[in-house]
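Exercise 7.
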Amino acid sequence: MAQSAHFNVLDLNMSIRVEHDRRRRQFTVSLNGSHDRAVLLYEYVGKRTVDLQHTEVPDAYRGRGIAKHLAKAAMDFVVEEGLKAHLTCWYIQKYVKENPQPQYLECILH
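Solution. The predicted structure, written as tokens, is:
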């Protein structure tokens, strides 16, 4: 049987693909086909300012680095778009503290 376009995160040999839905203002990773997903939600709170609000990974998939991929994608988006960011989500705060890239630090509003 052919594999679908989505991957199974349980297969450690495959990379995690983060998708960005700008209309819904979210980053997602499809898990175990397309039924489960991890998500990072954000909102624009100004013309050039976003609030990275919430990251959620289903319990069965926690501890596998999925949230780290979501956080990286969100922070890379902020940098690439020349935005400023509020980090409401505790996990993104943790990610930036553990990965203090200068380009990330320059974008964060305190």
